[in-house]
Amino acid sequence: MAGVLTTASNVTCGHAPGKVQTSSTAKLTVSGRPVLLKTSIAGSSVSGCSTPSDPNSGSVTCTLVTSVTTGDATKLTAGHAPVTLDTLAGGTNGTVSGTPQTLLSATAGQTKLTAA
């Protein structure tokens, strides 16, 4: 079983300490924190990405989540949308040597609620 993500979870771009700024208005909560949905993460801003922008090498600092490709729960929903799990994967607008970054990941930070 995977951990359910909440607004207290750590979602990163993959370049320490790049942190995704999440928010959620879901009514389902864990320890008083709303669960995250795909819409809580896709399109969110990223701060603190350690990839330096360098036009000569084709590297661009991550500033925005462009996609969430996996991590939806198959049965647990909030407001008819699947909650997002710590199996999350996706991409950002950052590049390293011209390669788009797909290192989006998360740590639930809680063990009270898990799902498949």
Strand content: 35-45%
- What's the total count of β strands? 12
**What is the distance, rounded to the nearest whole angstrom, between the alpha carbons of the first and last residues?**
5 Å
> Would you identify the regions where 5 or more consecutive residues have pLDDT less than 50?
none
| Secondary structure tally, helices | 1
**Overall shape:** elongated
Describe the largest sheet: 2 strands, antiparallel
> How do the helices and strands follow one another from N- to C-terminus?
EEEEEHEEEEEEE
Radius of gyration, whole Å = 14 Å
Number of domains: 1
Assign a percent range to the helix content. under 10%
Biggest β-sheet: strands ordered side by side in the sheet: 1-12
- Summed over residues and divided by their number, the pLDDT gives a mean of 96
Q: Nutshell version of this structure?
A:
It contains 1 helix and 12 strands. The protein has 116 residues and is mainly beta.
Keyphrases for this structure?
about 120 residues; mainly beta; 1 helix; two-stranded antiparallel sheet
Structure description:
This protein is mainly beta. It has one domain (2-110). It has one helix spanning 38-41; strands at residues 2-3, 10-12, 19-20, 29-30, 33-34, 46-47, 65-78, 81-92, 95-96, 99-100, 105-107, 114-115. It has a two-stranded antiparallel sheet. The protein has a two-stranded antiparallel ribbon with strand order 2-11. A hairpin with a 2-residue loop joins β7 (65-78) and β8 (81-92). It starts with a strand and ends with a strand. 36% of the residues are buried. The mean pLDDT is 96.
